Amino acid sequence: MGKVFNVTGDCRPDIHYMVDISGKLRQIKAMVDAGQYFTINRARQYGKTTTLRALEKALSGEYYVASLDFQYQMSNAKFRSEHAFSAAFARAFLSAMEEAGDNLPDKMNTELNLLRDRVAECREETDLVELFRHLSAVCGGADKPVVLMIDEVDNAANNQIFLDFLAQLRGYYLRRDRLPAFQSVILAGVYDVKNMKRKIRPEEEHMTNSPWNIAADFDVVMSFSCQEIGGMLAEYEQDWHTGMDAAEMAGLLDDYTSGYPYLVSRLCKLIDEKVAGGPDFPDKSAAWTRSGFLEAVRLLLSEKNTLFESLIGKLKDYPELQKVIYNTLFGGVKIVYNPDDSAVDMASMFGFVKNEGGILAIANRIFEIRLYNYFLTASEAQDSEIFMAAANDKPQFIRNGHLDMDLVMKKFVQHFDSIYGDQKQEFDEEEGRRRFLLYLRPIINGVGNYYIESQTRNARRMDVVVDYLGERFVIELKIWRGDAYNKRGEEQLADYLDYFHLTKGYMLSYNFNQKKEIGVKRIPLGNRVLVEAVV
């Protein structure tokens, strides 16, 4: 059986197409060699488990690796008391050491057996102090350093006992010049320890001290680079000979996902297993093209999966997070990336945003489109007329499989004037963008995609890029602020059309002047044409 793209569980290079993470493993191993304790905090489905499994294998020659997983080895009941936690942890640790090999030194085996006997006796006095006394003795009896790795530490996020456990790790770390201790401790999860503490004691959110303040910074880039994605595609191409342009496909995957591991693998899996063999893409050669890629994007954005469910769920759970994301998307607000701001810190921790030159930005284009769709869905009831008008007009806009964007602009002007023409109060760019996107969505939904070009995202201007069955359209949205400002906008849009190698662009201006001329006109710009709509 050949390899496949994997999006469930950890990836294995013998059965899955995956990027080469050997460079990342060397960086992490260097931290282990230096005796550092650290946490791998990354968003959901970011490759943490895959990395830990590969790291365990890479370390096994020089270290004894005790690899634990709190998700399946430590149920909530194990945190009901210090004794229950200590006994459960000891059993998980013993199981991990059994997997480490049969040729353990006698002194180490003796200490492991003493720990095994204590657990078997179920002594109530087996607390964290006793547990760590045994763990220290095991490390002291080993003929090579011992590394402790714990995956899914989020399972312990609501438990004070886990913080007490971290305090013991800290104590032995600080005394390891006198007492045997783990060479390195690696915790993996979404939440960092500071947020765990905040979650345990919500009334003390101002507290930032943590027993895990010994942790070294983990700066290893876990996202996939364009080059790494290209290497994975090259391996796939060796097996299937599709004739794809691997560099172009890697660039598209990077553009839309910013290297988010799950999204990269999911899009590749969709192209390979869902797009290929479909009515428009009869084989893999047809699927591994730009059009096939965009079809995979459409499929991804229309599906329910655990990553998207988590994304939307967090917005509902944390109103301050939702506000930050909404302002970034619709308001064009340039929010300074400040990790001390709780909402920004949370958005970063969950993988929603990234630091782009000191400014907050949505983490990737896929998230951005999904979030736009989420907020627009919430707006449908509020502005049902404009949404329903677009849904009713949809058949008019598709001619021989092509989207007639000129007609879309013309009809939007007509409907907008009919629905909102008597509105006396001016609105800002945010409201104008929301209303146009609400009109656009039912027209392209299910067939095309749209995104906001990050280079033009600001409070006064925003370019919407629409991909529809291989065709691309660029629409600039803005508030009318005079002829001079409008002229500059035309010139900027012309430059942007050159960037996309397009000869036609669109501009939608919201004009609140009493003598405005509502309608659509075509403006020649050299060898390009600008279709300008004014409402």
Q: How would you sum up this structure, described in words?
A:
The protein is of the alpha/beta class. The protein contains 21 helices and 16 strands. A 6-stranded mixed beta sheet has the order 11-12-13-14-16-15, sandwiched between helices. The chain is elongated. The termini are far apart. Mean pLDDT is 87; it is low at 200-208.
Tell me what the CATH architecture of the largest domain is: 3-Layer(aba) Sandwich
Number of folding domains? 4
- Count every helix, treating DSSP H or I runs of 4 or more residues as helices: 21
CATH homologous superfamily of the largest domain? P-loop containing nucleotide triphosphate hydrolases
Helix content range: 40-55%
Largest sheet: 6 strands, mixed
Cα-based radius of gyration, to the nearest Å: 28 Å
Structural class, from helix and strand content? alpha/beta
Strand order of the largest sheet: 11-12-13-14-16-15
